[in-house]
Q: What sequence folds into this?
């Protein structure tokens, strides 16, 4: 058999093998690396892969660990975990609930707004979903909310940290797309391409994030008008409303100051994402101290949690590097290029197919798993066909936000299931997120038709 064809067959089989092993429940990082090594040995025996290619792994790993941009990831995770321990989310939810409680759907509206604020403060999805599930879900149940609506609002609002800056997913994608775009442009003969930075992706994701917040709020208002029994009002007693203005200011000012200092400095070009993340980590620690929540025990928990989450993400990245080397060297890049280039509709047809594949993979894989596998494979082809890297990165981010919500392996669903009372069934949680998944698809369509919603702000800030 032709060695090129044999290599492409093995590359495609390896991709399907990785997906199959992940569906069986094997650990992600070990599945990526282990399956790739098995196919590498097989490819070496068949003469289509040279094991000496693994000699580049050490330098690649050192590059990851010394990458200044990626240093922002553990810092933002530290900031998010520290804010979780400082009860900022709890105070925000309780205060916003009182502020909007008199209106039908007021509690749900407060959950969306708090989710957006926490997303812009931390970028950590899991902590946000768990915190809001513990605090707001019992309150919504006592108020007589439809369990499906309550579950859907909490899960969807918690996932806003996926797309609203500072998002750890956007940090990884920004770093990956910067390197891929530079390689693609140099291959075209452009030796001075416009650089792509994490800050550009943050700027591009800002308006789409606000649009998602608006869509969620619109759905809640629609439900309040058409089905008022699903989200009744919760009037606040007069004695509790006396100090409401002071409570609102106290609850809102600290996270707003943190958002301005972190996100504002990045978008304004004052600081790099890593520098801003350092400010955010210190700011979150100061806020915790101001609330008398900072102690050696709390700091120890935050550091351990940060190290655990960071290690989990980077070990997946390391496993994905093994997969990427084997896939490319066996001709997988050519296979993907031929497939995408031959699709009807040109570059937009290829983009639609890639988005559809990522959406389907979101049912069974985590966001980081998808970007570490799919982006290195498809982004070079899509950028070579003429797509803007900022638009591509933000579109992928919005698309993969659905991976937190789609059954059976949506992580936001698992987070909420873990803290929800037994009276709320898993089926109710699954059905509750369906409208919000559809809203995210609608957002993708709007961004596809109106790309300037992504590209306008980065062009202004450059």
A:
């Amino acid at each position: 058999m032709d060695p090129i064809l044999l290599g492409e067959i093995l590359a495609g089989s390896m991709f399907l093998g990785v997906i199959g092993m992940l569906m069986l429940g094997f650990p992600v990082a070990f599945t990526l690396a282990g399956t790739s090594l098995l196919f590498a040995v097989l490819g070496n025996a068949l003469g289509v892969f040279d094991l000496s290619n693994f000699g580049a792994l050490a330098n690649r790993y050192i590059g990851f660990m010394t990458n200044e941009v990626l240093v922002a990831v553990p810092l933002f995770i530290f900031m998010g975990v520290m804010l979780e321990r400082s009860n900022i989310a709890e105070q925000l939810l309780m205060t916003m609930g009182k502020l909007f409680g008199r209106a039908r759907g007021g509690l749900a509206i407060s959950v969306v707004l708090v989710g957006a604020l926490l997303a812009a403060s931390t970028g950590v999805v899991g902590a946000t979903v768990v915190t809001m599930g513990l605090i707001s879900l019992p309150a919504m149940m006592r108020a007589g909310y439809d369990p499906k609506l309550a579950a859907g609002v909490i899960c969807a609002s918690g996932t806003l940290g996926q797309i609203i800056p500072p998002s750890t997913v956007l940090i990884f994608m920004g770093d990956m797309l910067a390197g891929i775009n530079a390689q693609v442009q140099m291959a075209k003969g452009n030796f001075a391409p416009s650089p792509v930075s994490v800050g550009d992706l943050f700027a591009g994701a800002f308006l789409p994030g606000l649009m998602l917040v608006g869509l969620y709020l619109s759905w809640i208002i629609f439900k309040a008008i058409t089905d008022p029994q699903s989200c009744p009002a919760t009037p606040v007693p007069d004695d509790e409303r006396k100090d409401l203005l002071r409570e609102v200011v106290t609850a809102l000012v600290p996270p707003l100051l943190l958002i301005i200092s972190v996100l504002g400095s990045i978008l304004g070009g004052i600081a790099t994402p890593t520098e801003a993340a350092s400010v955010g980590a210190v700011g979150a620690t100061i806020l915790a101290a101001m609330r008398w929540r900072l102690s050696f025990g709390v700091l120890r928990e935050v550091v351990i949690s940060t190290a655990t989450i960071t290690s989990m993400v980077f070990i997946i990245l390391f496993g994905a590097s093994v997969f990427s080397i084997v896939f490319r060297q066996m001709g997988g890049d050519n296979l993907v290029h031929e497939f995408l280039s031959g699709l009807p509709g040109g570059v937009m047809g290829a983009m639609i197919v890639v988005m559809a594949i990522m959406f389907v993979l979101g049912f069974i894989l985590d966001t980081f798993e998808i970007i570490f596998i799919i982006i290195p494979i498809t982004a070079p082809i899509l950028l070579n066909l003429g797509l803007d890297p900022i638009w591509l990165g933000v579109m992928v981010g919005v698309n993969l936000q659905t991976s937190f919500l789609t059954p059976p392996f949506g992580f936001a669903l698992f987070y909420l299931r873990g803290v929800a009372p037994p009276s709320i069934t898993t089926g109710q949680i699954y059905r509750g997120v369906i409208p919000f998944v559809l809203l995210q698809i609608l957002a993708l369509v709007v961004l596809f038709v109106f790309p300037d919603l992504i590209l306008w702000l980065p062009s202004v800030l450059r």
Summary: The chain is about 75% helix and 0% strand. The two ends are 52 Å apart (CA to CA).
